[in-house]
Amino acid sequence: MAMGGKRFAILLCAEDSDYVKKVYGGYFGVFVRMLAEEGETWDVYRVASGEFPEDDEIGLFDGFVITGSCNDAHGNDVWICKLLNLLKKLDSMKKTILGICFGHQILARALGGKTGRNVAGWDIGVTAIHLSSSNHFSSLKIPATLSVIECHRDEVCELPPKAEVIAWSEKTGIEMFKYGNHIMGIQGHPEYTKDILLHLIDRLLNRDLIVESYAKEMKAKLGTCEPDREALRKLCISFLKGGL
């Protein structure tokens, strides 16, 4: 570990599939590949399995990333309630937090917003999100519309007080939000490859969460569009490490 390098923790809210484990070193590997740079230390806490940082460890980290999950962010599982408490504590310490998909929703809930099922149903595939005209991203030279991989049927229905919508799409009114300068949520999956999504579609189908005709249609559509992974990566890194 490089001395003086920044230190980050991934709060892992999903079980790794065998495929993602084998090919990417689990979701931890996926996130590290996207976000980590020279000289940093990245740790993981498997919060969905009840593994949380101790109070005296929290201060060691410059930032936290909350991942996606198969669980509902409006659920009250023991680990979700513990996570809500941890996030409130991190907010009070003004720690930098980036929430992705479930992470975006659970952050909104922890801060006083509301989450629930999206009336438009599942959004699976590559979605165009529109960045708000407020100037958060101007220095990054990022286009006003970005394509991001999505895989969700829940959404943030109501923002926490003082939070600001910074991106929206046709299906989802709150695709991204910021809260102060230290918290940002993204409904999409900047970290996903199309390959990860294809395997996830199969898992959802095997669990009867989606029907076969829909799975086929989504897979066919995926062939025709590319996510803006580099721009999204830049956006996440500059938020986590520079505060947009």
UniProtKB/TrEMBL annotation:
> Which keywords does UniProt give here?
Cytoplasm, Hydrolase
Reading the lineage from the top rank, the first entry is Eukaryota
**Compartment(s):** Cytoplasm, Cytosol
Q: Which Pfam families does the record associate with it?
A: GATase
Show the SUPFAM superfamilies listed in the entry: Class I glutamine amidotransferase-like
Q: Where is the Glutamine amidotransferase domain?
A: 27-193
What's the main place this protein lives? cytoplasm
Pathway linked to the protein = Secondary metabolite biosynthesis
What PROSITE patterns has UniProt attached to this entry? GATASE_TYPE_1
Q: Name one GO biological process term.
A: glucosinolate metabolic process
* UniProt entry tagged with the keyword Metal-binding: no
**Per the record, what is one GO cellular component?**
cytosol
* Entry keyword Cytoplasm: yes
One example of the protein's molecular function in GO is:
peptidase activity
The family classification in the record reads: Belongs to the peptidase C26 family.
- Supply the name of the protein: Glutamine amidotransferase domain-containing protein
Provenance organism: Castanea mollissima
Lineage of the native species? Answer: Eukaryota, Viridiplantae, Streptophyta, Embryophyta, Tracheophyta
